[in-house]
């Protein structure tokens, strides 16, 4: 098969070069041509120089050789037909429509019928034809570009997102965005709270939320969908739903059914709708479904830059001949998206934790092929198609779901490196293990939240509260840190509603092992101990936890104490300024 580097540059005078023009909504530009054999017309590609000279063509990209000819794609700006082409009677059609026309017979030119399968096979490239190696799908907004007005749409959104207390802490404690500082102490009198220097929303979440609210507000006459949950926080997702946002599928990829028609939204979404891709990114399979329907991707893609950074690392490792090991949860949207991207460039496999990494290490060390195949069985559903046990485990590189524990990823790397040393010898380890993967691909916001919490847990506290959605992986990692430090005095909750009384709290048992029926449920536990000394409480929130929830939790806990023993919020906020 001809390689990408061997494909020629586009030559409009070469009859073997077929150029297909797409708009930003991924629709193909076509022209009507009279049929010579009977009345009517067929749709064909724009192949006349007189037409192409009337528009800004863009840069044609060589896609592949199809038989004796070459296929090229090019993107035009905008989602509307250029006026010069509209005047010539040109039209557009989605790939799904073109496929339907092909089945009818007599609607498409011979060229389109011949190249149709090739176009669909390479459709995932259409939105990214003009992307450079340094381009990101969506770059974080600068502080000046941020749209903070979306958090003040009404009293409900203000209560959810805003916290004068958290704002004061961040202003004092976050001298450096990527470096943890000492925790903040909030002395309310009868109770003292300890908050890490870093907690709550990361830049990727802020960008995605602001983009979602803006899209809803600017498209009042359209259905606006989110591919799946915007972020892993039920209160944010529900607030957006109340404002008109719909979800195409659940966080596990299950299609959502329209309650009014009993039809899956995926089956009714059209090019008149808008679909936002969440911060986790999306699998190519899901993107293709949108591309084929003629929906624009880039205008509404909120994929976090740090997630895309992982995809790029996986691509680099694959191009160097390494198999990519993804430390992540196979059912998580981000890991699914990373696997989808990684497996295009390299054999890929998902490893959940140290236990599974140890099993994969045994596969690497096994000499007997039958034993090797049996040990590998748990990974069969989590590896790329055609995974070859005899060769694909000889060179490994590790990337990770950005919301996990860095130390766990490093231990997995060490474990796999040790297995490769046993197999191939220490002298050759750099040929078999990508040592640059030790720099890890963890999100810096996830890491600094963990670092800040690691400093906070050194302090003596009576209880620790970690706040986040039930399916929030990064929140669970923060809880793991607290659980290790405080045992059953650490609690995982979603909001102040989980605090039942002073003595009882609803604790969420995170479903780290989905097969365990004892996980994924709420459990009522003893909460605040009775004591004479002031209560000391550690509180932190995951990267998708709005600040307003933390302040509401503090207010509820304060309500269990005599009001005369509790200092006012304004007084405590003034005191925060002296912490610097």
Shape descriptor: globular
**First-residue to last-residue Cα separation:** 63 Å
Supply the number of helical segments.
20
pLDDT average, as an integer?
Answer: 91
Q: Overview of this structure, please?
A:
With 580 residues, the chain is of the alpha/beta class. 34% of the residues lie in helices and 16% in strands. It has helices at residues 49-52, 83-86, 95-104, 110-121, 155-161, 164-173, 203-218, 234-242, 265-268, 284-292, 305-319, 333-342, 354-365, 369-376, 406-424, 429-432, 444-456, 473-486, 547-558, 569-576, and strands spanning 17-22, 28-34, 41-45, 61-66, 69-75, 91-93, 184-187, 191-195, 224-226, 246-247, 274-276, 323-327, 348-351, 396-400, 463-467, 490-493, 504-509, 521-526, 535-541. The chain has a 5-stranded mixed β-sheet, with helices on both faces. A 3-stranded mixed β-sheet has the order 1-5-4, with helices on one face. Strands 3-2-6 form a 3-stranded antiparallel β-sheet. α6 (164-173) packs parallel to α20, α11 (305-319) runs parallel beside α12 and α13 (354-365) packs parallel to α15. The longest helix has 19 residues, at 406-424. The N and C termini lie far apart (63 Å).
What is the secondary structure topology, with strand pairs?
Elements: E1 17-22, E2 28-34, E3 41-45, H1 49-52, E4 61-66, E5 69-75, H2 83-86, E6 91-93, H3 95-104, H4 110-121, H5 155-161, H6 164-173, E7 184-187, E8 191-195, H7 203-218, E9 224-226, H8 234-242, E10 246-247, H9 265-268, E11 274-276, H10 284-292, H11 305-319, E12 323-327, H12 333-342, E13 348-351, H13 354-365, H14 369-376, E14 396-400, H15 406-424, H16 429-432, H17 444-456, E15 463-467, H18 473-486, E16 490-493, E17 504-509, E18 521-526, E19 535-541, H19 547-558, H20 569-576
Helix pairs in contact: 3-4, 6-19, 6-20, 11-12, 13-14, 13-15, 17-18
């Amino acid at each position: 098969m001809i390689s990408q580097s061997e494909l020629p540059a586009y030559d409009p005078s070469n009859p073997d070069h077929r150029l297909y023009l797409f708009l930003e909504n991924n629709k193909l530009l076509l022209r009507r041509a009279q049929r010579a054999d009977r009345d009517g017309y067929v749709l064909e590609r724009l192949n006349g120089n007189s037409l192409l000279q009337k528009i800004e063509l863009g840069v044609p990209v060589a896609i592949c050789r199809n038989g004796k000819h070459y296929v090229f794609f090019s993107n035009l700006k905008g989602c509307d037909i250029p006026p010069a082409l509209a005047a010539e009677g040109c039209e557009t059609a989605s790939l799904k429509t073109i496929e339907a026309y092909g089945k009818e017979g007599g609607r498409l030119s011979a060229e389109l019928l011949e190249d149709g399968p090739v176009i669909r096979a390479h459709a995932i490239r259409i939105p990214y034809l003009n992307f450079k190696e340094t381009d990101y799908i969506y770059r974080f907004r600068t502080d000046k570009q941020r749209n903070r007005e979306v958090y003040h749409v009404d009293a409900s959104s203000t209560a959810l997102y805003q916290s004068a207390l958290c704002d004061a802490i961040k202003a004092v404690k976050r001298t450096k965005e990527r470096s943890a500082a000492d925790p903040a102490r909030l002395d309310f009198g009868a109770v003292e709270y300890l908050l890490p220097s870093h907690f709550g929303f990361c830049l990727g979440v802020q960008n995605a939320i602001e983009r979602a609210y803006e899209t809803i507000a600017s498209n009042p006459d359209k259905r606006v969908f989110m591919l799946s949950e915007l972020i892993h926080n039920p209160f944010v997702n529900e607030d957006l739903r109340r404002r008109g946002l719909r979800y195409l599928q659940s966080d596990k990829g299950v299609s959502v059914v329209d309650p009014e028609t009993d039809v899956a939204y995926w089956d009714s979404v059209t090019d008149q709708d808008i679909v936002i891709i969440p911060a986790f990114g999306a699998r190519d399979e899901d993107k293709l479904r949108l591309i084929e329907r003629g929906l624009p991707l880039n205008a509404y893609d909120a994929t976090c830059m740090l997630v895309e950074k992982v995809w790029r690392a996986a691509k680099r490792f694959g191009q160097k001949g390494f198999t990519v090991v993804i430390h992540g949860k196979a059912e998580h949207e981000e890991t699914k998206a990373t696997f989808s991207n990684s497996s295009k460039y390299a054999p890929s496999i998902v490893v959940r934790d140290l236990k599974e990494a140890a099993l994969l290490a045994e596969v690497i060390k096994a000499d007997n092929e039958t034993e090797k195949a049996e040990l590998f069985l748990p990974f069969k559903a989590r590896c790329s198609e055609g995974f070859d046990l005899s060769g694909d485990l000889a060179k490994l590189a590790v990337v990770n779901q950005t919301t996990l524990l860095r130390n766990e990823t490093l231990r997995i790397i060490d474990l796999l490196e040790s297995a490769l040393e046993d197999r191939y010898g220490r002298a050759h380890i750099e040929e078999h293990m990508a040592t640059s993967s030790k720099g890890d691909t963890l999100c810096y916001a996830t890491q600094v939240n963990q670092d800040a919490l690691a400093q906070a847990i050194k302090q003596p506290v009576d209880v620790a509260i970690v706040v986040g959605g039930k399916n929030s992986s990064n929140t669970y990692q923060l809880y793991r840190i607290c659980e290790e430090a405080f045992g059953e005095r650490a609690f995982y909750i979603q909001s102040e509603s989980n605090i039942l009384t002073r003595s009882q709290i609803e604790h969420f048992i995170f479903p780290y092992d989905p097969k365990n029926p004892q996980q994924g449920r709420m459990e009522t536990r003893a909460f605040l101990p009775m004591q004479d000394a002031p209560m000391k409480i550690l509180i932190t929130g995951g990267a998708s936890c709005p600040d307003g929830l933390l302040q509401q939790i503090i207010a509820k806990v304060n309500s269990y104490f005599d009001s005369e023993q509790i200092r006012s919020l304004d007084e405590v906020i003034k005191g925060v300024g002296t912490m610097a």
